[in-house]
Structures are given as structure tokens and as C-alpha cells.
Amino acid sequence: MTTHTPGSIFFESGFPSTARRFGDSPHPARLLTHIGSEQRETVRHLLEETGAVLFRGFEILSIDEFEDAARSLLGELAAYQGGDAPRHAERGLVYNASGPDKSRAVRAHNELSYAPWHPGTLFFGCSVVAEEGGATTLFDGRRVYASLPAEIREAFRDRGVTYIQHLPHAAGDRSGIKSWPETFETDAKDDVLEHCRANYTSARWTPLGLLTTNRTAGTVEAGPDRRQAWFNQAHIWRKDPSTVPDVTDMRRWEAWIGYGATFGDGTQIPDAYMETVQSVLNACEVAIEWEAGDVLLVDNRAAMHGRQSYSGERQVFVAFA
Ligand SMILES: [Fe+2]
After folding, report:
1. How far is ligand 1, taken at its centre, from the CA of residue 109, in Å?
2. What is the rounded CA–CA span in Å between residue 145 and residue 152?
């Protein structure tokens, strides 16, 4: 689908779909921060059909412009509560997406797929481009699902995933795992346990920290025709059973800080499944080479995202809805 809207925005369908400025504008950012209802509707359709929309040429460079564009396109924004990534709020509900370790790539994931709540939409914006590398990577979850052998995708669709997390009491634990006060953005112990008991499958204190499990979906339906999309990060959380405690044994988990994943029913996910998933993800990777001023909308259920390693100063904001 290609739509021309004279004098403002030119849309093109794809993965990602693109929206470009059409013609001259004295204030390009205003085309997004004050987007018209007809154009917002076109964006919504493209996002639902294709899973991601890249906006180029609108010069969204400051945090103010980013926040205004986010609210204009998404409405109410949400907090990153319960997330495992080391992430700080730049201001209010606008976060820094770049993470501390630029030398390592961030692997494909859906935001908070392991948690009881996940955002429906993500909004990224680049104000400073890395010297080298730093592309945001996108993965069409419906293509990933369709590309996997039936045995693997149906196992995840039918059995789901149980995520285990044992979060340390204090920040700076030598495991490198975020502490529970950092994860839940509060150190009110009773509130955190109450929140976890209400939302997770199980939650309890241990001498080392907070141990939770969350049984949830491994795939979801996405788009207007409700096709199955890959929606899990078992390939990141599941560790080699020879190097960490058997994730099916929760007693041994009390002495181990970290993350694990099993099938929803608690049985081990075979090594060979994870190897196949990783190679399909590699084949489905699409790199978004940022230009300063770009913004990117991602349907968090239809598409996974990641980040290439980089050098230099990279500034990418993210907001959730
Ligand atoms: Fe992410």
C-alpha cells in the first residue's frame, strides 16, 4: 500500500513501513507532534498490518519533540516497571534505550514478554547516531513463527513458557542481575511482594533475594488476520543446563541468582530447539540504520527488536504504551 498526502507525509508499506516528509515544511517535527487524525489512522493501519513504521525526515531531535511525538502518536505513556534491562528514565516516561554495554549486541526480544504485563507499542527515537554500528534490529514475529519447523512453533504455542527470575536484594550484585528494587522502581518490600503475588505465577523472598516464576504465552496472535507471531525470549533466558541449576528444580534456584526459562509446564526446552530458533531469528533480522531525527513505532506483539553493538555516543530514546 502506498498513500500520498500532498504537502505532508508519504507512506509506504513494508517491514518496516516508512513514513517520509513530503515537500518543504518550516517545522518538520510538528507534522508528527500535531499529526492529523486521518494520518494517525493511516499510521495505525500500517502498524497493525506490518508491525513497524519508521518515520524519516521529521527532525525529532530534542527530548521535548520526542515526548510530544510519542504522546501525539501513542496517547498515554507507560512506565518500564518489571523490566530486566538496565535502563534509566531520561525524563518522566521517556527512557534511554541504549543500555550501558555498547560492545555487546542486544538479542532479539519482545519488550517484557517474560513479565505479567507488556507494552503493546514501543516508540524509539534517535537524536545522536553512533560512530559505528548501533542499528536497531527488527524481526517480523509472524515471519519467525512461519519459518520455524511445526514441531517447535507448536510446542511454544501450545505449552507457553515459564520464566524464572531470582533478583538480588542489592544493586551491584556480582551476578550483574538487576536487583528487585531496581526492577520494580521501589524499595517498598511489602508492596513489591504484594504486586508480584497478584501478577506472577509465584513469588517469594529467599535469603538472596526475590524469586518469581511467570507462566505465560510463547506466541501471540497479531495483526488484522490474527496470525500467530513468535513472542518469547526463551532463547535469552534459558541457560545451558550443564552450567546453571536445573531450571525445573526450584529448590536449587534458591541458591542461584539469575534468569531461567522452561516450557510452561516446567519441562526443559531442548538445546536443538533453541539453536533452530536462533538461526531463524538471524535469518529474519532487518537492521534499521538510524539517521538523527528518525523515530520508529513497533507493535511489540507483532515484531521483536534488538540492537547491534556500537562505538561512540549514541542517543536513542524509548517510550512505551
Ligand atoms: Fe528492548
Report:
1. 6
2. 9
CA distance linking residue 263 with residue 267, whole number of Å? 5
Residue with more model confidence, 236 or 7? 236
Tell how far the Cα of 309 is from the centroid of ligand 1, in angstroms.
14
Cα Rg of the chain (Å, integer): 20
Report which secondary-structure segment, H or E, holds 74: helix 63-74
**Cα–Cα nearest to 317, from 300, 289, 288, 296:** 296
d(CA 277, CA 234): 10
Query: 3 - beta bridge partners?
Result: 11
Residue 7, Cβ neighbours under 10 Å: how many? 11
- pLDDT for 64 equals 96
Q: Which residues surround ligand 1, an ion (CB under 5 A)?
A: 111
Angle in degrees, CA 303, 287, 296, rounded to 5 = 60
DSSP assignment of 177-222 equals PPPHHHHTT---HHHHHHHHHHHSSEEEE-SSEEEEEEEE-SEEEE
User: For residue 185, is pLDDT > 90?
Assistant: no
pLDDT digits (tens, 9 = 90+) for 21-75: 988 888 999 999 999 999 999 999 999 999 999 999 999 999 999 999 999 999 9
- CA of residue 37 to ligand 1 center, whole Å: 29
The answer to whether the beta carbons of residues 288 and 97 sit under 8 Å apart is no
Structural domains in the chain? 2-139+288-320 (3.60.130.10), 142-280 (3.60.130.10)
Q: DSSP characters for 19-59?
A: EEE-S--S-TTHHHHT--HHHHHHHHHHHHHHSEEEEESS-
Q: Which amino acid is at 288?
A: I
Q: Is the peptide bond before 16 cis (omega within 30 degrees of 0)?
A: yes
Distance between Cα 128 and ligand 1 center (Å): 18
